[in-house]
Write a structure and sequence with these properties.
about 110 residues
Length: about 110
């Protein structure tokens, strides 16, 4: 069982990008899915989370700019990042409760240039 993230890269301030994270393996149940990020020199923080039924929550700094969604049929969670700011630069990690255990994907770097 694993999470595989994709997307990110170098984006200009004000631009957009989309992250995806797919769960694979022998999966019997998937609970909450979410995205965290860790900026250089800072602690990892929760960015957004979505429940299986689609309820979402966001850290205040990204509200109105980022959108989390999921495709339960494809065991995939997405993060749409709009109106990016240099302070959004970080390694983004997906997270999910799979088979009642907590899993992390490898991080994907988003760099926002000013």
């Amino acid at each position: 069982v694993q999470l595989q993230a994709s997307g990110g890269g170098l984006v200009q301030a004000g631009g957009s990008t989309r992250l995806s994270c797919a769960a694979s393996g022998r999966i019997f149940s998937i609970g909450d899915m979410g995205w965290y990020r860790q900026a250089p020199g800072k602690q990892r923080e929760l960015v957004a989370v979505i429940t299986r039924s689609g309820t979402t929550s966001y850290v205040d700094s990204v509200k109105g700019r980022f959108t989390i969604s999921r495709d339960n049929a494809k065991n995939t969670v997405f993060l749409q990042l709009n109106s990016l700011k240099p302070e959004d630069t970080a390694v983004y990690y997906c997270n999910a409760i799979l088979n009642r255990a907590n899993y992390w994907g490898k991080g994907t770097l988003v760099t926002v240039s000013s």
